[in-house]
């Protein structure tokens, strides 16, 4: 787990910048100006390093405090630009729109789908799904059948290929697109994975998925994140 030891700025300032970047569609240079307006002189490259150091760490620390998702999964992929090329971001939400999990992949095939399902099933707030709703991607039936045969997925899980039921996830994809827009893509898989983990972590908070933290209560969210990192809010 990352800490603030040796940093030029306090944990409170760093977490403030990290929260704002991960919540709103803003560039590193714009956030540099916002911080300067508040009397904090910091270069945009330093803010980038903060995101790489703490965004994925935030997501890991957040996971144990999430409310359980239900057993109706909606699964789909969206596109993320990486070094000028499109990659695939697998994402899943439940019937209430609560985030289940996500996975960045260079490929869109059965192997990637199985990696995503295994990652989702391993999270503390998920259950073996009753239904999995997907689009017409032919990789999903093979992935689900293989996992049922291996005993990794409940044999009674129903795979539904119904596009309109995934509208709730399509809307959720738009939030990711808004956040990645100002950055004009990512330079590497590592930076993309870490930043996307932070985007998803803050989205889960704002959806009200964290126990005893309101989705619209930004003050409570800031206090909770400070508590996660053992920083005085």
Fold and architecture overview:
The chain has 233 residues and is an alpha/beta fold. The chain has two domains: 11-65 and 188-228, no CATH class; 72-176, Ribonuclease H-like superfamily/Ribonuclease H (Nucleotidyltransferase, domain 5, 2-Layer Sandwich). It is 46% helix and 15% strand. It contains eight helices and five strands, in the order H-H-H-E-E-E-H-E-H-E-H-H-H. It has helices at 11-23, 28-37, 44-62, 110-121, 139-149, 167-180, 189-206, 218-228; strands at 72-82, 85-94, 99-105, 131-134, 158-161. A five-stranded mixed β-sheet has the order 3-2-1-4-5, sandwiched between helices. Strand 4 (131-134), helix 5 and strand 5 (158-161) form a beta-alpha-beta unit. Helix 1 crosses helix 3 (44-62), helix 2 (28-37) packs across helix 3 and helix 4 (110-121) crosses helix 5 (139-149). The longest helix is centred in the first third of the chain and has 19 residues, at 44-62. The protein is globular. The two termini are 19 Å apart. The model has no long low-confidence stretch (mean pLDDT 93).
What is the third-level CATH name, the topology of the largest domain?
Nucleotidyltransferase, domain 5
Could you say how many structural domains there are in total? 2
Average pLDDT confidence is 93
Strand order of the largest sheet: 3-2-1-4-5
Features:
single chain; 5-stranded mixed beta sheet; 46% helix; 8 helices; Nucleotidyltransferase, domain 5; 233 residues; alpha/beta
Any chance you could write out the topology, listing elements then pairs?
Layout (H helix, E strand, L loop, with lengths): L10 H13 L4 H10 L6 H19 L9 E11 L2 E10 L4 E7 L4 H12 L9 E4 L4 H11 L8 E4 L5 H14 L8 H18 L11 H11 L5
Parallel strand pairs: 1-4, 4-5
Antiparallel strand pairs: 1-2, 2-3
């Amino acid at each position: 787990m990352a800490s603030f030891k040796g940093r030029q700025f306090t944990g409170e300032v760093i977490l403030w910048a990290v929260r704002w970047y991960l919540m709103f569609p803003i560039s590193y240079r714009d956030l540099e100006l916002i911080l300067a307006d508040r009397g904090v002189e910091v270069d945009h490259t330093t803010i980038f390093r903060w995101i790489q150091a703490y965004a994925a760490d935030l997501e890991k620390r957040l996971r144990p405090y999430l409310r359980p998702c239900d057993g109706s999964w909606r699964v789909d992929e969206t596109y993320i630009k990486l070094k000028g090329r499109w990659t695939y971001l697998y994402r899943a939400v439940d019937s209430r729109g609560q985030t289940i999990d996500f996975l960045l992949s260079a490929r869109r095939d059965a192997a990637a789908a199985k990696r995503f399902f295994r990652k989702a099933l391993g999270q503390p707030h998920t259950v073996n799904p009753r239904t999995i709703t997907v689009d017409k991607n032919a990789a999903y039936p093979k992935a689900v059948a293989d996992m049922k045969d291996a005993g990794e997925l409940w044999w009674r899980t129903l795979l539904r290929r119904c596009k309109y039921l995934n509208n709730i996830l399509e809307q959720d994809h738009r939030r990711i697109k808004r956040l990645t827009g100002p950055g004009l893509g990512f330079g590497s898989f590592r930076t993309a994975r870490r930043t996307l983990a932070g985007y998803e972590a803050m989205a889960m908070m704002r959806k009200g998925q964290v126990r005893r933290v309101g989705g619209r209560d930004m003050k409570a969210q800031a206090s909770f994140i400070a508590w996660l990192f053992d920083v005085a809010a």
